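Continuing the series of single-chain predictions for the mutant panel. This is the parent chain; the variants come on the following pages.
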Amino acid sequence: KKMIICTKKMDYPLGSHCQRVQSQVVKVNSEKERPQLLCVKALASRGRLDSVTQQMSYHPQYLESFLRTQHYILHMDGPLPLHYRHYIAVMAAARHHCRYLVSLHSAHFLRVGGDPVWLQGLDHAPLRLRNLDQINKVLAHRPWLMARQHIESLLKIGEQCWSLAELVQAVVLLAHCHALTSFVFGAGVDQESPGPPGLPSYCFCDAANGNATPPDGLRPPSRRRSLDSSSDGVSLRERLQRAQEEKDRRGERRILHTELEDEEEVPCCVDPLRYMSDPEFGYQEFDRREEDHFQVFRVQDYSWEDHGFSLVNRLYSDIGHLLDERFRKVTSLPSSLLSSGQGPDLKRAIWNYIHRMFGIRYDDYDYGEVNHLVERSLKLYIKTVTCYPDRTSTQLCPRSWKSLKPAEKVHVNLLIMEARLQAELLYALRAITQYMIA
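Parent structure:
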């Protein structure tokens, strides 16, 4: 079974010289070389594979779904303008002090025409975006507080009101970025810069837009046979390198120069605090003793499958299918960590444990299984990455962590990210449902 990539149909950022290789065809085995194919696409337009994509490439089936969803949210048709989307991503990442994502989306905010003044802080952004700060805060730290009144206040505030379609896209983006910060900190990515000095940052969502020009000397970290090992891949790489060298000799650096100018507009040290209010607001234990005040969210009454999926898909076309695919892919990933006879039970225990921390309960689940299947040090790690991601450190890694392969550690972090994403979406979509039927 083969997959054929025809470079003639791809939008190369290298300029007219890409026509020299338009007849070149790279054939890859769709199963054995899928990780390399995805990473080569990710290398295409910026000359760098970002750390998030590198980590997720251990699980190519999931990575493909993640990239498709993120590209759709940030770049495809939707009610929100592009610069609004990246600024909302900055606001979401700032709640957890994630400098990596704040810097990354600040750069892309400028690239799509955003006003640099907005990056001076939330006070300099339009009132509509400032009004979004309250639900950003609640969803990030205590999503069980999300209520119909939050939705109503944004939809009925005069000239600065949001439309329902705009608000749904904003909520999906906020939840996506909140969950992604957990992965970033869990994987140790926040200690890195989004882009090397002198090169523009690469946004991992660009991998989904069809660009596939692999720069010389950059390969994804994988033990499988890479595209560079094939004669076709070597030929393509050499021809691209020669074309780039010829372009350099002619001094045609206009595209790169423009991107570098954009990058220089972003401060080297980004302070997330400028994009939030009430920085002391954080996660608090969902105390079951206060059920009369904070009612437990029972999945039997409102679930993703029966309620959330259909609502979000109706208000934000196709996003429900993309999100549902992510949830299904992450829970079906093979992993030796979870491949014992208790594998599926352990994955469900991790998922339900995360939801329980946010007040979501499954009446048909025995929560004693969590203590039986999830060791105490792993529970501490999961809770920290989920609820206090910016406090994650190597000292918190479970005792069994050292014996795990990188792919197994990534698998756990992916489960944390997706379970948290679904939890935030359930609360937000339930509040929207309550507003619609009120």
